[in-house]
Amino acid sequence: MIVDGVNFKKYVMELSKKEKRVDGRGLLEYRKPIKIEYGVSKNAEGSATVTIGKTKVVCGVKLEIGEPYPDRPDEGTMIVTAEFAALASPEFEPGAPGEKSIELARIVDRGIRESGAIDVKKLCVKPGEKVWLAFIDIYVQNHDGNLIDASALAALAALMDAKFPKLKEDGTVDYKEHTNEKLPIVHKPIACTITKIGDKLFVDANVDEENVSDGRITITIDETGTINALQKGGMGGMTEEEINKCIEIAMEKTNELRKFIV
Question: Taking every pair of C-alpha atoms in the chain, what is the biggest distance, in angstroms?
């Protein structure tokens, strides 16, 4: 961690005038390696680990049978949660989910939900009575910045990896036996978070850059180039010109990340 945040911010801003960063990257470069591993958990219907630089996130998908919402009797649903392991960062403490983990889950949820990534009607078993519920659980294993992009990518990868367990005739689920049927994924939303420090825009901010940032915006885009969600974070504002620039950046960078999805 950087102790003297004021001087560090000045240093970051001076370097950014030369289009450089403390770790040697350009302002719009993701850290390396970027890596996705599928099927990392035997206890989940689908799972994936995403590594971006030193940031590492695991996501698992569990499928259960439940009742649909009364206003959507023929649609399954999903629930996204995020857990920050205390070992992942000195900033994290054990206990109930905090504000940051709740915010992370909501951003990932919104990107998936608003994109229509899952054909929820195909999760219906019996209208008004039984549907599949998809629980998307995010676990931060190491926090070195940009948890949003890593978590959104891990959630998508885990959903793509997921297979339905066997549904028995009595309506119960046999988790010891899985079918070859995958989740009905129809869109693939990917998030790109752009951080503002001073008057410069940064992609994939590490944890020290995040700690001195003036604000951020996360833009989720699917494979058709459709913007599914925008989420502003931080205290600082952005001009209309800066937001338009962020959209341009996100269009390019989500295509880069998409290459890692199998």
Answer: 66
For 205, the token pair is 């901010």
Distance spanning both ends of the chain, measured CA to CA: 35
Closest CA to 177 of 165, 185, 194, 168: 165
| Per-residue model confidence as pLDDT tens digits over 132-186 | 999 999 999 999 999 999 999 999 999 999 999 999 988 899 999 999 999 999 9
Strand partners, 27: none
Q: Measured between alpha carbons, how far is residue 98 from residues 1, 14, 82, 219 in Å?
A: 21, 34, 10, 23
Contact 149, 205 (CB under 8 A): no
Residue-wise DSSP of 33-50: -EEEEE---SSSSEEEEE
19: left (phi over 0), alpha (psi -120 to 50) or beta: left
Classify domain 5-258 at the CATH superfamily level.
Answer: GHMP Kinase, N-terminal domain (3.30.230.70)
The SS3 of residue 105 is: helix
Task: Identify the CA nearest to 161 among candidates 37, 35, 33.
Answer: 37
Q: Tokens 């998409």 map to which residue?
A: 258
Angle at 16 between CA 18 and CA 147, to 5 degrees: 140
| Residues in CB range of 156: below 8 A, 6 or more apart | 112, 117, 188, 189, 190, 261
Structure tokens of 21?
């960063």
